[in-house]
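USER:
Make up one protein:

ASSISTANT:
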Amino acid sequence: MDLLISELLGIVREEINTYRDLIEHARRKTALLVQGSVEAILESRQAEETFNFRLRSLEGEMARLCRDLSAKVGIPREEFTLTKLADSLEQSIALEIRSQATLFRNMVKQLKSVTQRNIRLIEKSVHYSQGVLDLFFNATSSYQKTGLFKQVPPIPPSFSRRA
């Protein structure tokens, strides 16, 4: 069981390091969004995919280890958490698990905060772009929002029928 716990802590540490890198990447992406560099933003997206792939593989390993540990310590799988695992272990190991779990939660909160800021920047950019498009749309008045031509009402004759 000590080997499983050691592996679990190793994976948690790897996830924490990956989240640190992802947070730093998200902060750099904030600068890219402010600058508006489309090419750099697209390249940034590729790096995010690499981080996400790494996190998915670590989560798969963690799920396997948690399943094995839940069976060994007698915690039902659906109730298994790192905190509950720590409650069933000796104090020194429990302290380390709790410490890593807290650090992990903090990393996730930081990433969520930076991501929400980036989402707001993107939403503002989209709103600004929509405003520019609306300005062009109103200036030309030839198109509807659907992209189709507007129906131009017939122009009434300007000469008098009495003439």
DSSP finds four helices and no strands in the chain. The helical segments are 2-35, 38-73, 82-87, 91-140. The two ends are 106 Å apart (CA to CA). Residues 91-140 form the longest helix (50 residues).
